[in-house]
């Protein structure tokens, strides 16, 4: 199977006492098991009273932890299969691996996240996304999934089935997802250009226009003014001729998303066309992404509340900046997946990459979450402090009922789900 080798910082995490990829949380599970087949997974579920699926560890909290057994699918070494425009993949496969595999066969996924290092099942289960006002989250490419539920049964759900929209962004609460089927399209080329000099007035006034200015757009800011009066850079990823960005100039040198760092780990810029999977992510799969030792938070707001959200963060800029490495602003198209942060509305995501100071970050988040618009939803895989989230998801109670049916003995339940779902 096409795979991405472990990055250097992941080596220790392959032990049961390991941690998340950024070392933000140390797992407490008593054992880590790597089944090699679906039957192995079923046997584990029938044998172990408490267990939890572990993806590529690209989260920052106890989301995937359990007092029992962590189950990693990275040794279920199956080759993907392509039938028409649908690719079937093992859940433990990473996006970087399936992307290159598809490109070799003339196919592509509609979008990718910033990091190609993440596992497919884990990214889908948490509503992880890339950018683009017409691009849904990674979960929206799923046409079917198979999981081993709390009864030890292998369950297949296809798009259109009654439980499908509730199960896709499932937070690992319904079972262990062993396989997914994803919709693909013909492979395509993308150019990536960084635009410098965006002022705060232009960012605020033209926010939606800027986010609409290419197939995928990211705005990077630290919320304080630079010496030249600018506040942000815009990363524009285009499939066609890129639109102009008000008040900016194209960069003449490559950049890292975090100011001052070597741009070598980042994908090619300067308007040079390349395959979709070598431009849509911000980082190359063979480098450590971002800075490694960090925390991340993200808040997704309905697009009509985006300017209000931007103003709220700007008002805290002096407090945010000392702990912030960078903040990324992106857009995500609406979907119908029950626990997707983009459920029912186009959204704008405010993604914070923080220095690894959990106490300081939590103090800021508590205040920030009070100031953000009422429709704000956090990214499930990142750090947030709110727990009263049910009113923000119309199908919240339906999802809890789904969990009760799929896992009546709560074998996949953990402390994170208790805090968040209740």
Radius of gyration: 20 Å
Q: What percent of residues are in strands? A: 15-25%
Q: What would CATH call the architecture of the domain at 189-378?
A: 2-Layer Sandwich
The tally of strands reads: 19
- Approximately how much helix is present in the residues? 10-25%
Low-confidence stretches: 1-17
| Measured distance between first and last alpha carbons | 39 Å
H-E string: EHEEEEHEHEEHEEEHHEEEEEHHEEHEHH
CATH class category name of the domain at 189-378: Alpha Beta
- For this structure, the CATH topology of the domain at 189-378 is Alpha-Beta Plaits
SS class = alpha+beta
Mean of pLDDT: 93
Number of distinct helices: 11
Keywords:
L-gulono-1,4-lactone dehydrogenase activity, Alpha-Beta Plaits, oxidoreductase, 422 residues, Oxid_FAD_bind_N, D-arabinono-1,4-lactone oxidase activity, Vanillyl_alc_oxidase_C-sub2, five-stranded antiparallel beta sheet, nine-stranded antiparallel beta sheet
Strand-helix topology:
Elements: E1 31-33, H1 38-47, E2 51-54, E3 69-72, E4 81-83, E5 86-90, H2 95-104, E6 107-108, H3 120-125, E7 142-149, E8 154-158, H4 164-167, E9 175-183, E10 185-186, E11 189-198, H5 200-205, H6 207-211, E12 216-221, E13 232-238, E14 249-250, E15 274-275, E16 295-302, H7 306-315, H8 317-320, E17 324-332, E18 347-354, H9 358-371, E19 377-378, H10 396-406, H11 415-421
Parallel strand pairs: 1-3, 2-3
Antiparallel strand pairs: 4-5, 5-9, 6-10, 7-8, 7-9, 11-13, 11-14, 11-15, 12-13, 12-17, 16-18, 16-19, 17-18
């Amino acid at each position: 199977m096409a795979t991405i080798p472990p990055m250097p910082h992941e080596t220790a995490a392959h032990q049961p006492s390991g941690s998340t990829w950024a070392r933000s949380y140390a797992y407490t599970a008593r054992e880590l098991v790597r089944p090699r087949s679906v039957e192995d997974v079923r046997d584990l579920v029938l044998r172990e009273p408490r267990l939890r699926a572990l993806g590529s560890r690209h989260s920052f909290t106890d989301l995937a932890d359990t007092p029992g057994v962590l189950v990693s699918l990275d040794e279920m070494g199956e080759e993907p299969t392509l039938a028409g425009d649908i690719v079937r993949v093992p859940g433990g496969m990473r996006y970087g691996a399936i992307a290159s595999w598809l490109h070799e066969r003339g196919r592509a996924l509609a979008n990718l996240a910033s990091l190609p290092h993440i596992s497919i099942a884990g990214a889908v289960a948490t509503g992880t996304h890339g950018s683009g006002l017409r691009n849904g989250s990674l979960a929206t490419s799923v046409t079917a999934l198979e999981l081993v539920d709390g009864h030890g049964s292998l369950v297949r759900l296809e798009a259109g089935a009654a439980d499908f929209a509730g199960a896709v962004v499932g937070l690992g609460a319904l079972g262990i997802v062993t396989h997914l089927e994803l919709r693909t399209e013909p492979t395509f080329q993308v150019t990536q250009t960084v635009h410098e000099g965006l002022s705060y007035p232009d960012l605020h006034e033209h926010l939606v226009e800027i986010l609409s200015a290419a197939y995928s757009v990211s705005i990077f800011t630290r919320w304080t003014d630079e010496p030249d009066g600018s506040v942000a850079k815009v990363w524009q990823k285009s499939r066609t001729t890129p639109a102009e960005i008000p008040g900016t100039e194209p960069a003449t040198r490559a950049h890292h998303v975090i100011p001052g760092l070597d741009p070598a780990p980042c994908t090619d810029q300067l308007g040079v066309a390349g395959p979709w999977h070598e431009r849509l992510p911000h980082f190359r799969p063979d480098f450590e992404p971002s800075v490694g030792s960090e925390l991340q938070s993200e808040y997704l707001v309905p697009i009509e509340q985006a300017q209000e959200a931007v103003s709220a963060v700007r008002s805290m800029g002096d407090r945010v900046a000392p702990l912030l490495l960078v903040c990324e602003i992106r857009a995500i198209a609406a979907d119908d997946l029950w626990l997707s942060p983009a459920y029912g509305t186009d959204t704008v995501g405010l993604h914070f990459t923080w220095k690894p100071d959990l106490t300081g970050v939590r103090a800021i988040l508590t205040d920030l979450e009070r100031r953000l618009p009422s429709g704000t939803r956090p990214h499930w895989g990142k750090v947030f402090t709110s727990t009263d989230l049910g009113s923000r998801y119309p199908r919240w109670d339906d999802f809890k009922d789904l969990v009760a049916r799929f896992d009546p003995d709560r074998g996949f339940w953990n402390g994170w789900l208790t805090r968040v779902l209740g």
